[in-house]
Amino acid sequence: MKTESVTRRPVLRWSWFGLVPFFGYVAIFFILPTAVIAYSAFRVSGEGGASAFSGANMTTALSGPYLDALWNSTKMSLVSALIAAVLGVVLAYAVATSRGGMLPRLVSTSAAVLANFGGLPLAFLFVAAIGNAGVLTSFVQQRLGLSLRDDLGLDLYSQSGVQFVYLYFLIPLMVLVITPALEGLRPEWREASDGLGAHGWQYWRYVAGPALLPHFLGSLALLFCTSFSSYATAEALTNGTLAITPLRIDSALSGNVLAGQENLGAALALSMIVVVVPLTLLYQLMQRRSSRWLQ
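The chain above was modelled as a monomer; its predicted structure follows.
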């Protein structure tokens, strides 16, 4: 019997070349700016324009009013993320369990649009509606004799007002990221739970809740990061007077308080990166863990 030896030639894989634009984009617009920020955060200017490495900027960024701004940003983002996560889950569950074909598509399309609607247009939208001379403000005051700010406590230009506006894009974002997880709950799990005599809350406590918890925590981290890094809406509504870190960075870079504070602005930005990066990794980890059950 004749044996034929087959020699396989090494196959040159060209498919990885498709990732070159992605890695180039990440390197230019993420890694390089992050490296520049980290470098600038530890540089201080001395006499005669000379600069040297020092931790003075980080010390300033983590003390006094700058530390208060960082803590205020954290609390404000956490409250906004929690409210948006709870309301988003309720809305997403209503959509996922609805029998109509039009409602899920309408909500999904609207959520995709509203989740990316922010900045100055969003601030203008709310000012036109419930600002001091807004349409709804004037209507309620003329028809009902009530003031949205004094009688109902809705002050658009305060911290709570900015949090209220943030919910406009955070809730749709939560609907987008949690809906696939809700749709991944298998009907067999509910049937098995009912067959074993479990009540509704027991199904959510021991079956659906643990399966959804990693995805919920990951989504919560994503909402926190989105709120934590938002800038334009707060700037437009409060004229930069709100004590949060993004507005402090703007003041440092523009020289509104003191000139030559660019490195302090880099230190403030580095403190935000230190907060956001672990949460981003947590989001990826939770997404991977939940996909084992819900795919």
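Strands lie at 43-45, 51-53.
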